[in-house]
Amino acid sequence: MSEKLIGLLIGFIVSTGYAGVALLMAIQSACVPLPSEVIMPFAGAVLAHGQTQLLLLATIASLASNIGSIPAYWVGARGGRPMVERYGSYLLLSRHDLDRVDQFFVRFGSFAVLIGRMLPIIRTFIAFPAGVAKMNLVRFHVYTFLGSWPWCYALAYLGMRLGDSFRTDPRFKEIFGRFHVAVELLIVAGFVWFVWTHWKNRIRG
Fold this sequence. Notes:
There is one protein chain. This protein has helices at residues 3-28, 36-47, 51-86, 88-91, 95-108, 111-116, 122-125, 127-132, 137-162, 165-168, 170-198. The protein has eleven helices and no strands. It is an all-alpha fold. Helix 1 (3-28) crosses helix 2 (36-47), helix 1 crosses helix 3 (51-86) and helix 2 (36-47) runs antiparallel to helix 3. It has one domain (3-198).
């Protein structure tokens, strides 16, 4: 991430406050690869000046994750397996993928979402398979919140501890810029791997 983009993100959070953080976290929870690993440390550095603000920030971000996951959950729940089978060629999904999702949720139940929400990248996309698996909606939101809150708190705490160093110390800008690039490269690599391994076995309508 360039210094200019870092400045834009910080400026957006400064100008919009908690509402801006909620918007960004809702977007990243809607199967859009906008890493919370980038959003929350900046939010903590800008908005959290004590334990009260830190707790409020983590709570707002976690609630936003719930809100953002609703569309992906309902697309999976309403369309279910038939929708994925019909449009599988566009989604690059195979019936084996669907079977594995079913088995995963049968084996771990609600804890699949709780665990998934604590894992980088996976937390962004867990809502859709939860919907396909017809996970109980109340449990889905409870476990989404419980899984998101510690993650959001930890990242915001990191940002709060670093504080103004994000904006004033060029070393942190360089380190965090490299971290962001690594996260984005990991997302791209995961996408390329998914396309490469699923192209031949995708479901054809």
